[in-house]
Amino acid sequence: MSFYEEIKKYALFDFESFFERIDVRDVRKTIARSRLSERDYLILLSPTAEQCLEEMAQRAHRLTIQHFGRVIFLYTPLYLSNYCVNHCVYCGFQVNNKMERKKLNFSEVDEEARIIAATGLKHILILTGESRKDSPVSYIKECVEVLKKYFTSISIEIYPMDEHEYAELIAAGVDGLTIYQEVYDENIYSELHPAGPKRNYRYRMEAPERACRAGIRTVNVGALLGLNRWRSEAFFTGLHADYLQNRFPDVEVSISPPRMRPHLGGFPPPFAVTDKNLVQYMLAFRLFMPRGGITVSTRERAGLRDHLIKLGATKMSAGSSTSVGGRLDFDSAGQFEISDERSVSEMAMMLYSQGYQPVYKDWQMISEEPP
How far apart are CA 12 and CA 94, in angstroms? Predict the structure, then answer.
């Protein structure tokens, strides 16, 4: 049974009716529990739980320190290509948007990698638009070969693949996968993906499981907040992460809670997600999955990211660019607008000022070649 079957159990679930039955006593009892159930997690996502955010924050902080210490792992994205065949109405890279399409050659990948490596970062996330024709597995594999000279951890955020393709990239040096379901409500998903291979809801949802079976080390999942009501999307994201952690205990599982940002095409998010909503989501998840990672990207503004450090965040991007060749001064539109434009060194100084340690490297792949 995959997570697709698990989520089907909630097909007729009435979230609003559930929330109406929750009172503050339910929330406080839940905060005090040492281990939370799915129902407990939903209680902490309820509107009523907004009255207890300070209590949730104190416990979330203690749990994060207990399991992760006072450290924040730093990484940065590297966009290899913006060619895409999908019609996702909310994305700057979608095929109908008029923009210059670009794919880095291997020399350009090497040049941008050297620029990033000079900042001290050892973790990188490589991204492409979803086009197998323009960014085939063979191309990504060649890019990984270049990047291995500079980075100890290489994650991918690309189109979903078959298990044997994940295995091929893992053998080449990839150790992490980020893949967002975007929206867990299957009906809304169909509306937002009118055409293209990404329209296959189930194939995308089961991608993390295929990668786990192939031997991936880390998996990061999430919903793009603003496409649907955030409480149900946060709930299903948490359930997805919990399912993966229970089924694949050797895999490090994390979530991202990205909110929509302005982008080419200008699709307005149909649902508002406030800073308070985002904080509640992170706190509830931390209490539900004390050992689960939480990644906060540069979609969020600097001041808010500074505040989120003590509320459960474990990983942050720095020195980011969302355009292909963004560090090589190419004139290419980004996938979305960045909000926090601080450099790696500026992020490190901010972390030190809060009593936290920036971590540039926490993983080293052991070479199978003899010394």
Answer: 32
